[in-house]
Amino acid sequence: QHPLPEPPSYMEYQGILFPAINIKQESLEAVKMFEIRDDDVVIVTYPKSGTNWMYEVVHKILTGKKENITPVGLEFWPPGKQPSYIQLRETPSPRLMYTHLQHQLAPPGLAAPVNKLSHNILQVKVIVVLRNPKDICVSFYHYCQKHAYLKNPESWEHHNRDFLDGKMVFGGDYFDQVLGWWQMRNDPHFLFVKYEDMKKDFRSSVKTIAAFLEKELTDEHLNLILNSCSLESMRKALTESGTSRNTIVRKGMVGDWKNHFSAEESARFDQKYRERMAGTGLEFDFE
Ligand code: A3P
């Protein structure tokens, strides 16, 4: 273990916290003007919803390749490297990228796509992965503890409160992030996939995603995806990668929140959940 070079510092942009080390105001402003191409595929998630899982699945649907890849996050500017928005500008089509941004910070070509359907023109495909917030809260807690560039939660109790108060890095308030994108649910260029459904029936989830991407899968191709994107295959591949990405795969289950939430925390969470989700038509499995 290396000692931390400096304490993690966050910057705030339009009310949302970002780690100063790999997201800058300049990159967030550039993202707002980022040009989306008609053949782009963009994965949108609140952090810890299964971003990397979906990315591997989509990458493998598009390419048929077995190797794992390092996902490109639109808003990121890794230290010593090019910001993603420049790297992506130079990437030939078709491009695949992900973002945790709330819809109002995302490129306009994504959050408010022009309806070209009537002209039968190809258009960007956006896959939004959704996950129940209790498991996300737990997943985020463990993730923050493992990364030196993120603030180590003072305690589980603090983290749980901060989550409900919308003070998380990258995505800000869970309900704002999710419900902002949920407004696009009737847009045919958006596909909403729940983590819990992928866990329940991975095979049919992959088929649905492939159909949305207009890719026909042979049985062989489908099986390659199912095998190489399983929890254990991804755990093995990421561990062997020798990078910090080995922290991505943890338990990979639905309902781990029960091992962390007190009855009181759960009740408080449920109340906020009911208030914010009422009338939205969005529901989750919590176990
Ligand atoms: P847990 O911490 O609850 O285990 P993200 O990629 O958005 O950071 O999400 C990380 C979460 O997705 C982690 O949740 C991780 O275990 C889970 N995950 C990663 N790969 C997975 C896979 N192949 N199958 C199921 N869950 C997976």
TrEMBL record:
InterPro entries reported for this sequence: P-loop_NTPase (IPR027417), Sulfotransferase_dom (IPR000863)
One GO BP: sulfation
EC number(s) from the headed UniProt entry: 2.8.2.-
Keywords: Transferase
Domain Sulfotransferase positions: 38-281
GO terms, molecular function: sulfotransferase activity
Name of this protein: Sulfotransferase
GO cellular component: cytoplasm
Protein family per UniProt: Belongs to the sulfotransferase 1 family.
